Amino acid sequence: RGLPFMDAVKELADAAGLEMPAADPHAARRAQQARGLQDAMQAAQDWFEQQLAGVDGAQARAYLAKRGITDATRRAFGFGFAPDSRGRLKTALKDFPADMLVEAGLLIQPPDEPGRTEREPYDRFRGRLMLPIRDARGRVIAFGGRIIGEGEPKYLNSPDTPLFDKGRTLYNLDKALAAARRTDRVIVVEGYMDVIALAQAGIEEAVAPLGTALTEHQLERLWKMVDVPILCFDGDRAGQKAADRAATRALPLLKPGQSLHFVTLPDGQDPDDIIKAKGAGGFENCIAAPRPLVEQIWRHERATIDTSSPEGRAGLQQRVAEQAATIADPLVRKEYERAFRTR
Question: Fewest beta carbons within 10 Å, which of 103, 182, 245, 263?
Fold first, then answer.
């Protein structure tokens, strides 16, 4: 009959004796706000890409060439460049309200100071190689920027916004979802340049957290992709600390058949180093025999306790028992308790 969709739904509900839920004006307003922010983020992404291709992007292009990033990879991941200016992005996006650009994390609004007029917002990202951070549907929701030349911080991510929650976001999720379905695995590495190096070598199912330890939300998202994600962290102290934190955080969430595997890379090397030295095959060899989660927990606790005495060995058993006790699922908890007792 050519009815509009919502009218057809209402007519069907009436015929079935069902009451249509009232429209939520707040939800509609939030959806409209999100669309505006997404438009602003995409406009910024387009502009950053233009800057990388132009005269101002020469140093950033040289950096990419030095890192071995091909033009095809540059385009696939949407590399861009933010010039070292406090106002060029703001000017380029003048069709968007300044307060919207602040809310999107593209501009910084200086705090008010007593006795001074309100100060103008300015560009957040300046003098940086830019990477878009996308949601699972491929929409730009945030940015990561690496400083070109000297300066701190080396890496700068967007702040949390209505579009972006870094504790719920995994870099490269949009591309890794399809790859993980083909390979039935997902590899978690430390940073976005590691993800890109692996993808360029043909290993496309890699993701990375965004400068934070893996959160419960990120772990749950990984388990929706595969039952046993592989966590591949650098062999330095920071990398191993991140692995131990992820192991401890995962324990309460475990379910039958759902776990983590761990790989420690040689000290001082990251995935990019291994790919450059040995190719994709060399990296595959590094991750061919990962440690199960139970072994990661045992190794961590064993390294922190002197077990040369009966008291020390009892202390180790107490610590691993406490770790096992955090597992919510009774079947998994029982198996961990058994595994620790028999060591």
Answer: 182
Provide φ and ψ at 76, rounded to 5°: -60, -35
The closest alpha carbon to 292, from 340, 224, 329, 330, belongs to 340
How many domains, in total, are found in the chain? 3
Q: At what angle do helices 237-250 and 216-225 cross, to 10 degrees?
A: 80
Cis peptide before 97 (omega within 30 of 0): no
Q: What is the CATH number of the domain that holds 58?
A: 3.90.980.10
Q: Please check whether residue 275 is in contact with residue 261, taking contact to mean a CB–CB distance below 8 angstroms.
A: no
> Parallel, antiparallel, or unpaired: how do β-strands 187-188 and 230-233 relate?
parallel
**CA distances from residue 143 to 125, 140, 214 in whole angstroms, order as listed:** 9, 8, 19
Whole-structure pTM value: 0.89
Q: Note the pLDDT tens digit of each residue in 100-127.
A: 999 999 999 999 877 677 789 999 999 9
Is position 91 within any domain? Answer: yes
What's at 312, amino acid-wise? G
Contacts of 305-313 with C-beta under 8 Å, sequence gap 24+, read none
Joined together, the tokens standing for residue 61 give: 């292009």
- 105 in Cβ contact with 124 (< 8 Å): yes
Residue numbers of the domain that contains 187: 165-292
Compute how many other C-beta atoms are within 10 angstroms of the C-beta atom of residue 127. 19
